[in-house]
Amino acid sequence: MSRRRGGVMSERLKYELADELGVGNVVRNDGGYFGNVSSKDCGNLVRLAIERAERSMTGAR
Questions:
Q1: What's the rounded Cα separation, in Å, for the pair 61 and 40?
Q2: What is the pLDDT of residues 8-54, one digit of tens each?
Q3: Domain edges within the chain
Q4: Does the keyword DNA-binding apply (predicted)?
Q5: Nearest to 16 by CA among 47, 48, 51
Q6: Cα separation of 20 and 24, whole Å?
Q7: Is pTM beyond 0.85 here?
């Protein structure tokens, strides 16, 4: 059995990105569960998170 370590993204960032994509209400209505968010939207959440991380590393905004 594999161990799950703490998430890389903060909960605040997850909700912020979900709101940006328009799925924040889906997550909130399900008590913070992202399982009912489509695979496409989850992929977009990851893409946005990567873009933000890259921008913060380069200092760009």
A1: 25
A2: 788 899 999 999 999 999 999 988 888 999 999 999 999 999 999 99
A3: 11-58
A4: yes
A5: 48
A6: 8
A7: no
